[in-house]
Design brief:
CATH architecture of chain A: 7 Propeller
Distance between the termini of chain A: 13 Å
Order of helices and strands of chain A: HEEEHEEEEEEEEEEEEEEEEEEEEEEEEE
Number of strands of chain A: 28
Helix content of chain B: under 10%
Oligomer: heterodimer
Shape of chain B: globular
Number of strands of chain B: 36
Structural class of chain A: mainly beta
Shape of chain A: globular
Distance between the termini of chain B: 34 Å
């Protein structure tokens, strides 16, 4: 899933909890176990939704947002972030809806001033949301911004920080926020306190998402010929090292999955099929060019507990998609119907 | 070619009987004599059903777009994206592009999109709507897979001068005005209509996309439409005439956003349509030569698209004998598309022939054939065969059996073939085979007139074009086969009690389009989305002298939202009612006024998911005739 960099981010949050002084053990909510499937939704239909899959029982629960709240999500879910007991559903249709992670009841939202929101980070009681801004006549986004909200449970946008066009992934590194901007292929370094951009760092390829592995922060990027993984300096935020993988036509939405042993799964759109390619972060080698192949692959997720790969399949956008579970040997375990355009997975 | 129906039609208080093929239509009642001039749609359509909404019925729907009128008054399902927004018709379970739309014989489906937006056709621009149910490609050419809809104008010879001024005020910021003048002399007639329709569409709705589902007022669905429609007709002598129509239409729309989306799109449409017909009517042979032009300009935000369609046609209708009739024609069409990403021209040549054979007065057969060649490529030869048999008739009852077998096609649109970067020039035409059988019954007894029609249809559409993602681009392919089956039932009745005249109409459509083949295996066996299995429409009319009333209801059944049939929208029922009063202040000033209520029970409904429609609303209109 495109947000696996979050997994490590969330891990740190869990660690914080585990090291805390609060002796009370809260019961796990229904959606704090199993697998959450993020169904992006189809353009023009706004039918993004979250499904829940229980790997033990094999039960799949549909539309958990609508079930919990009695109304459809009504947006295209670009990303989901989990922070401090809340899940933030970021829609590129101009809203962020905040739900309790345990039961998915909505507790707040950010609406009205967002246009094409992409991702979100939370720090110091503030939310920072990357937003492409409006399209111009040539379908460019010259007025991209980072929206600042001074309440972790939503509300109005307090500030809009102008940013390089098409900001996508964000992460916290040290006491700065890094923003990957696609159009100019650079990282913007943002000071969350002053809400200003302090510097920019050029990178190779179109940058998508940050992730952490072995106490290092990486940035995933691609172009038509290669996948790039940039390791970042935690102080200067410059690129320390770039690993280039010769993977052609890696999927345009920048989705990938990271394993706990430092392997990356990437979708490559080839002439007659879509192929999942397995890469090694440590050796910089393409381990398997055809780990698994099929059609209409759209999202990826890796379950560290079972070492299964989850592949989201969009069924040509003619209807709802499905999820394929593939084991570590690349064998299909099963395939289950899910929602429209399964683009990502979250493993609580 | 056109011909005149010289029958006298009974109308009362704006209620008229529908027209249809053969006997089912040939109803004559006698109130205000109105000369109905209809296109010769049903002449070579034995075995099929053509329903006509005439001028009086359209007057009852004044203020609606063509899409709204069809939604509320027929069993057709109209996919509306909001009031005044994009509207497309689904006939017999087909998609938006599988229905041909004609204005005075000119095809007005967009050559680039392959379909029409029924919201941009104001009822002010034509006198009559005829709906031809079922496959009719051999009669009309491309697109007529599910059926065809014809908009037509009628000259008004020998009617003198008449000026009408119409104003309509309605809920949510509606204000329409129309001014028309007509003159009908012995040899010359004209009609000029100018109109301006404005709808702010500031209707309240529940915002299901927002936390707390607040009630909001729609603030981005304003529609402003202006137009000028001009008809001219000259009788050169009793056999020859020239008729011309011209229609200029502009509609500027704020596009109602999907719930949950912040878009503020704007769309401007400009349409210029012109047609000239020459008629020569003889005892044995009647000729028609037609020249027409349709220019559509559409600006969506900053993106501009324009198309031009020029048509030349000629046909001759032979009355060989009482038993044999035939029509032979040729049509040449030039299309020039200047779209946002490409420019492309196309030529089409069509040859067609239709023959009627009536071995007995109660038995008739139609055989139609058509061959279309576009850019040198032949589409499959298109035949159609129909039959009608009046098997029982006495003083009160008439029974008739009908049957039809026909092939139809749809030429891939310009966008399908040439869109840059992903058009597919190798696409094949979509093709269909259709068969249907019907039973017609009419009853006239003790002042009660009843007509029924029940029809079953089966249609297989192959090479169905679907746009599919290929990496980062989408490209169209012939990937789907769909079989549509269904039933259609029509009921019309009228009767008198004392000074009151009553009428009750009912239309029911049962439609089940099932995907037989698809690239996505999980779609096979599933029903097409956004096609209700059931749609019912009924209307009760009552008239007493200058006063007339109506109650109208329709129920649209559950619609699947996606092709895997895993989610659906609930059925909804809408009721409307109206009261109209005709007044006459003097011989030179008369008119009528009316108050209509729509969605009386304030039903919250969505025709398409997340696109709210208006609740209860009212319209008041005054029509002055000078």
């Amino acid at each position: 899933m495109k947000k696996l960099h979050l997994a490590s981010y969330l891990l740190s949050i869990f660690l914080l909890f585990s090291c805390g002084t609060d002796p009370v053990e809260l019961p796990q909510g229904a959606y704090e176990e199993g697998v959450l499937v993020i169904n992006e939704g189809a353009f023009g239909a706004n039918d993004g939704e979250i499904f829940h899959f229980d790997e033990d029982s094999g039960e799949l629960e549909e539309n958990i947002f609508e079930k919990a709240n009695g109304r459809p999500f009504a947006g295209l879910i670009q990303n989901m972030h989990v922070f401090d007991g809340y899940s933030y559903l970021v829609a590129n249709t101009g809203k962020v809806e905040i739900v309790r992670s345990s039961d998915f009841m909505s507790v707040g939202a950010i609406e009205g001033e967002l246009l094409n929101s992409r991702t979100l980070v939370a720090t110091d009681g503030k939310l920072f949301i990357s937003d492409w801004g409006a399209y111009d006549e040539a379908w460019n986004n010259p007025d991209s911004f980072i929206a600042v909200v001074n309440d972790l449970q939503g509300g109005s946008v307090a500030n809009k920080i102008a940013i390089s066009s098409r900001p996508e992934g964000m992460t916290l590194l040290g006491n700065r926020i890094l923003v990957a901007s696609q159009q100019e292929q650079l990282i913007s370094v943002l000071n969350p306190e002053t809400e200003t951009v302090e510097k920019t760092v050029p990178v190779s390829g179109t940058p998508f998402y940050f992730f952490n592995y072995a106490n290092q922060t990486y940035l995933y990027a691609n172009d038509a010929e290669n996948v790039y993984v940039h390791r970042l300096d935690p102080v200067s935020f410059e690129v320390e090292e770039t690993t280039t993988f010769g993977v052609e036509n890696s999927i345009y939405n920048g989705n990938f999955a990271l394993t706990d042993s430092g392997e990356l799964f990437v979708i490559s759109n080839q002439a007659n099929e879509d192929v999942v390619v397995r890469l090694s972060l440590s050796t910089g080698a393409v381990l398997e060019e055809h780990f698994y192949s099929g059609n209409n692959f759209y999202g990826l997720g890796y379950d560290a507990a079972t070492q299964n790969l989850f592949i989201g399949e969009h069924a040509g956008w003619q209807g709802n998609g499905s999820v394929l579970r593939v084991d570590a040997a690349g064998e299909l375990i099963d395939q289950m119907p899910v929602g429209r355009g399964p683009s990502g997975f979250y493993f609580p | 070619m056109l011909y005149y129906f010289g029958f006298v039609f009974t109308l009362f208080s704006g209620i008229s009987l529908a027209a249809s093929p053969v006997k089912f239509l040939q109803d004559t009642v006698d109130l205000e004599p109105v000369e109905i001039r209809a296109e010769q749609l049903q002449k070579y359509a034995y075995g099929q059903w053509v329903r006509t909404l005439d001028k009086a019925q359209l007057a009852q729907m004044s203020g609606m777009s063509l899409g709204e009128a069809l939604q509320q008054n027929t069993g057709l399902f109209v996919r509306q994206y909001g009031p005044g927004m994009l509207a497309s018709v689904s006939m017999r379970g087909t998609s938006a592009g599988h229905n041909a739309l004609f204005w005075n014989g000119l095809p007005v489906n967009s050559p680039s999109l392959g379909q029409a937006d029924y919201s941009i056709f104001s009822l002010s621009g034509f006198d009559q709507v005829s709906v031809h149910y079922g496959s009719s490609g051999a009669l009309y050419g491309t697109d007529a897979i599910g059926g065809a809809i014809h908009l037509s104008n009628s000259p008004s010879f020998e009617k003198g001068h008449e000026t009408t001024i119409n104003t309509r005020l309605g809920s949510f910021g509606r204000w329409d005005q129309e001014l028309s003048h007509r003159y009908g002399g012995d040899a010359f007639s004209f009609k000029t209509r100018v109109y301006r329709n404005f709808a702010a569409n500031r209707f309240p709705y529940r915002d299901w996309a927002s936390a707390g589902t607040p009630e909001r007022v729609q603030d981005h669905a304003e529609v402003t439409q202006t137009g000028w429609a001009q008809d001219l007709a000259v009788k050169l002598n009793p056999e020859q005439s020239i008729e011309a129509s011209f229609w200029l239409n502009e509609i500027n729309r704020e596009i109602q956003p999907l719930l949950g989306s912040p878009e503020r799109d704007q769309q401007l449409d400009w349409n210029i349509r012109g047609v000239v017909d020459y008629y020569r009517r003889g005892e044995k042979a009647s000729w028609n030569m037609k020249a027409g032009l349709v220019r559509d300009f559409m600006k969506f935000n900053q993106e501009e698209n324009q198309t031009l369609l020029a048509l030349l046609g000629a046909e001759v209708d032979w009355e060989h004998s009482a038993k044999w009739q035939s029509r032979t024609g040729i049509r040449l069409t030039h299309i020039d598309g200047k779209l946002a990403s490409y420019r492309q021209e196309e030529q089409r040549l069509e040859l067609y022939q239709a023959t009627n054979y009536k071995p007995l007065p109660q038995l008739g057969f139609s055989l139609q054939v058509r061959q279309l060649i576009h850019d040198g490529e032949r589409v499959p030869f298109t035949p159609g065969l129909g039959a009608s048999w009046g098997f029982f008739e006495n003083q009160n009852h008439e029974w008739e059996l009908t049957a039809n077998l026909s092939r139809s096609f749809k030429v891939p649109t310009l966008n399908d073939r040439y869109w840059v970067p992903s058009g597919n020039p190798d696409l094949l035409p979509e093709q269909s085979w259709s068969r249907e059988a019907g039973l017609n019954h009419s009853l006239s007894h003790s002042g009660i007139h009843i007509k029924n029609r029940l029809a079953y249809f089966h249609m297989a559409v192959d090479q169905w074009i679907i746009w599919l993602p290929k990496g980062t681009i989408w490209t169209p392919e012939n990937v789907r086969k769909v079989v549509n089956q269904g039933l259609e039932y029509f009921f019309e009745s009228e009767w008198e009690r004392g000074n009151w005249k009553w009428g009750l109409d009912l239309e029911y459509a049962f439609t089940r389009p099932v995907i037989q083949y698809d690239e996505q295996v999980q779609n096979i066996g599933k029903r097409l989305p956004y096609v209700p299995e059931h749609k019912v429409q009924l209307q009760l009319d009552a008239g007493n002298g200058p006063l007339s009333l109506f109650i109208r209801g329709q129920q649209t059944g559950e619609r699947y939202v996606t092709t895997d049939n895993r989610s659906s929208l609930p059925a909804f029922t809408l009721w409307g009612a109206g009261v109209h009063y005709d007044f006459k202040f003097s011989t030179w000033l008369m008119g009528n006024m009316g108050l209509d209520a729509h969605n009386i029970f304030d039903q919250a409904y969505q025709i398409l998911r997340l696109r709210p429609m208006p609740g209860r609303n009212f319209q008041f209109n005054i029509n002055l005739v000078i």
